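Session log. Operator J.P. requested a structure for one protein chain; no other inputs attached. Running the standard single-chain path with token output.
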Amino acid sequence: MKIAIIGAGAMGTLYGGRLALAGEEVTMIDVVEPAVRRMDREGLILELVDGVHTAKVSARLAAEMDFAADLVILFTKSVYSRAALESAKTFIGPDTVVMTLQNGLGNLELVAEYVPMERIIVGISDFPSDLIETGHIRSIGEGHTRIMTAAGGETVFLQDVCRRFEAAGLHCSITPDIMATIWTKVAVNATANSITSVCRLRCGVLIDTPEAWQLALRIVDEIVMVAAADGVKLDREAIVDNVHKVMEAMPDHLTSMEQDVLAKRPTEVGSINGGVVKKAKALGLDAPCNETMYLLIRTIEQNYAGQIL
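Structure written below.
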């Protein structure tokens, strides 16, 4: 299977590297030419629990692709997805399947503008992965990959992808109720990522500070309400319990959004808290806590140069 991965960030490098180590034919697509040349020459570096691994891959700029991939995995931040999909027209053929494991809401709808629903796979990943530099990550810990066809129903191709991911140590399972799984991850990200990013504190703040936990619960309640209106029933208590357990297990962790804020980079708040707000408004609902967090983080993003700290 010819696999093209768009975006050699933390997750793209983890998945591309693990698949390549398992013997898959992987091509990394990125926009930073020096990094592309280095990856093509030296491979990907993965610092894993069992040691440091170098995975041999091909790496190219999108314009250099001269073949259609069997599977394209979109791993860019959501803010860059449209540009990435535009560039991918050179290697998305009539039979190419596109997979999105990106954070937040709205990813499926965007991919569907470029590829028919029957050729889209959606899912989530909860693997930890920290970017050292483009093509070099550290992933100390386990996770899972959950996938399903966007059109619903298992296909031979979906099963094949799942087997290949499993063989690569990506712990993959086919999840029929994938939208509930996606919404559940949105709830975790919308609480932890937004609160830590605004406060510039580590994950432990959510369970150590009653006011932070109260805010997290309000964010979750809004998401459960909006998801229900969208036809997706979520288990509110299970989500709350999961958020608490995750924060308790890694109190010193910096969320990905907070890392972006600290590094003065664009965040994914538009597809996380902002995605909830957009969906709520489309359904005639309000999500004031999510909207407040979205507006605060967008304000921070647009004023990096003027920040005092």
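Operator note: The chain has a mean pLDDT of 96.
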